[in-house]
Amino acid sequence: MTAVCVVGAGITGLACAAELVADADVTVVDRIPVPGGVHGWEAPETLRLTALAGAARMLLGETAIRWDGSELVVVGQDGARRLAADALVIAAGARPLGRAELVIAGGRPAGILAATVACHLAENGVVCGLRPVVYGGGDWAARAVHELLSAGALAVTVVAADGVQVALPPDGRVTVRDGAHVVGVAGSPRVESVTLGDGESVDCDALVLAHGLVAVRNVDGTVWDGERVVFAQPLDDPASAEAAERAGREAAQAVRSAL
Length: 259
Fold this sequence. Notes:
Elements: E1 3-7, H1 11-20, E2 25-30, H2 44-52, E3 57-60, E4 63-67, E5 71-76, E6 79-84, E7 87-90, E8 94-96, H3 99-102, E9 105-106, E10 112-114, H4 115-123, E11 132-135, H5 139-151, E12 156-160, E13 174-178, E14 182-186, E15 193-196, E16 201-203, E17 206-209, E18 213-215, H6 220-224, E19 229-231, H7 241-258
Parallel strand pairs: 1-2, 1-7, 2-3, 7-19, 9-14, 10-17, 11-12, 11-17, 12-13
Antiparallel strand pairs: 4-5, 5-6, 8-18, 14-15, 15-16
Helix pairs in contact: 1-2, 1-7, 4-5
């Protein structure tokens, strides 16, 4: 039987596995120990798709690190293992654009973080700044604003280049700069201000990057020399479970075509 590895146990990866499991030996790998990804393991979509993909092998809490065209190397608490496969599906999600990708000029002061990192810190009680600027208007921006305020931020300025796409907390501590771009950052040793495209300077003590998305590419072999690889990483912002599931079904069809 054809063997397929799926990296990512979010909605997209689960949907792909559910489509393939009837006629392929499917293994789903995810570094997070529960399925669901950003949608959560208790979400109705997660529960439904996990049930549909029930015959798939789930390697949760393990990280995919290399694909050479016929084997996927994964590392977990018991060490490394090699998984033979005829095809690989990358459904590892997306991340906010980084500073270089956003072309933000200036020095390298402390206090510039991706929204993913800022949210993780805030969820654990560590606020990255008392008066941060959040650059973005989609899912990660809204989540970052919520988490930062919950962790103790005194005021948050949202710079939404494409407008606010996801509702922000109705809180007087939130100020929105619609249609503006962050083009520079200043401060030493920590962020003291950001510069907007019109030349305006906004005082702050942290810059949280949440504008735009790029697919995660953390299995290096799939980028440089991988064969029979399908990328299933929708970049919609805001995202939806429907779009994620559709991407998974399309990835399954692409695998069948490739094989």
